[in-house]
User: What shape does this take?
Amino acid sequence: MLFNNAIGGSGGVTNRTYTFDQTAPPLPLTGFPPSGTYSPNNNGGSRTFAAPLPPPPYNSNLNIFNGLSGASVNGTWELFVQDFVGGDAGNINGGWSITIQTGTLNCFTQPA
Assistant: This one.
């Protein structure tokens, strides 16, 4: 669960890119946040999503990927989006992507 009950109001979320990092601040609870880096946030607690999404519980802790190799996260990934407010519609144009970076990148400077 990357975010739940985090984007609200009327209007669209157009041309935004959200990066999720466990150490970043959470998405704001109101309005349409700008592109940026946010921590996963399950503000609304548990939800029952429509099929084909599996039933809860859902994990919002990205640290479960720490220490995994690239081969461990390879596979088929699915994006599930559900609007819980009636009276409007939407779509995701242009596709979506996911990049999982495991571990911490370390840079070292060698003395001359």
About this structure: Residues 2 and 40 are 4 Å apart (CA to CA). The longest strand covers residues 18-20.
